[in-house]
């Protein structure tokens, strides 16, 4: 499973607006933001890695005006962490990732007064981006956020927003474009007034359900907190491996 997830991560990076192929690394860059969470590299599974490769990666990121950063499944490149630490990188986090299959998925009811829809217009995408941004401590959504959601949908990914009967967006979530019949679920966010009602679980379950209805075999994600971990376990996700987040200041 580790290698399958890592191969999918690398394949998705190769679909970014700007792609850098640096030795055994693939980097995906976003021209609209310098956010390190949208600009990072990952190793090609099984490719040999040297100190010179790391130096070249650092130079390429610096030239692009981006912070050198990696996200990857730990077992896919076991020698990489030591090379990065020797080059001055600092570990941000080491997380377990979880997977769900059609057999393990548990349906979760949508709270009363809310409906889940795939946004088909830019105003609805903007409302979703703003609601999810608010859930994560941001207070606005940019045109680039809207375009990013639209591009994901155009490439086969899923965006799902929760709206009240009055048209207010309560939250949302997404699944990335499929690779090797699997997809990453992410950005599950619910605004404060709509929490503690099971909405996050309902969004997560419905995103996964729609993925599986399109023929995908595995949904995977990471939990950012104990609360989200409990939500995802309720939906049917189980631990499967570890990923490393590491960057150079």
TrEMBL record:
Cross-referenced CDD domains: NAT_SF
InterPro entries: Acyl_CoA_acyltransferase (IPR016181), GNAT_dom (IPR000182)
All copies of domain N-acetyltransferase, residue ranges: 115-249
Signal peptide annotation: none
Protein name per Swiss-Prot or TrEMBL: N-acetyltransferase domain-containing protein
The species this protein was found in: Actinoplanes lobatus
